[in-house]
Amino acid sequence: MTVVPETVTCATCGSTARRATWGSTDTICYRCTECHAGGHIAHTDDGEELRRGGVFEPLQNYATRRVRA
């Protein structure tokens, strides 16, 4: 069983992203407390961990998101 962190550092702005899902789900979702970028961790059938979204990969439109957020 993989240990899932409760918080991760947001790759877009550097703030804390908190876990947003609990229990038995296929993906673990995160939301940044500062820039509100989202992201998730999913596991493939062969056990590979996939990290997707602005929490794990910097968003290209971060400056635009800051003005609108």
Please give a structural write-up.
It is a single chain. By secondary structure, this protein is mainly beta. The protein contains one helix and five strands. The chain has one helix at residues 62-68, and strands at residues 7-9, 16-19, 27-32, 38-43, 49-53. The chain has a five-stranded antiparallel sheet, with no helix packed on it. Strand 2 (16-19) and strand 3 (27-32) form a beta hairpin. The longest helix has 7 residues, at 62-68. The chain is globular, with a radius of gyration of 13 Å. The N and C termini lie far apart (36 Å). The model has no long low-confidence stretch (mean pLDDT 84). This is Small CPxCG-related zinc finger protein.
List the helices and strands and how they pair.
Elements: E1 7-9, E2 16-19, E3 27-32, E4 38-43, E5 49-53, H1 62-68
Antiparallel strand pairs: 1-2, 2-3, 3-4, 4-5
Q: How many DSSP H or I helices?
A: 1
Main beta sheet strand tally, sense and closure: 5 strands, antiparallel
The first-to-last residue Cα distance is: 36 Å
Q: Sketch the topology as an H/E string, one letter per element.
A: EEEEEH
* Residue share in helix: 10-25%
Rounded radius of gyration (Å): 13 Å
Average of pLDDT? 84
Organism: Natribaculum luteum
Protein name: Small CPxCG-related zinc finger protein
Which properties best describe this structure?
Small CPxCG-related zinc finger protein, mainly beta, single chain, 5 strands
Concise account of the structure shown:
It comes from Natribaculum luteum. The chain is mostly beta strands and about 70 residues long.
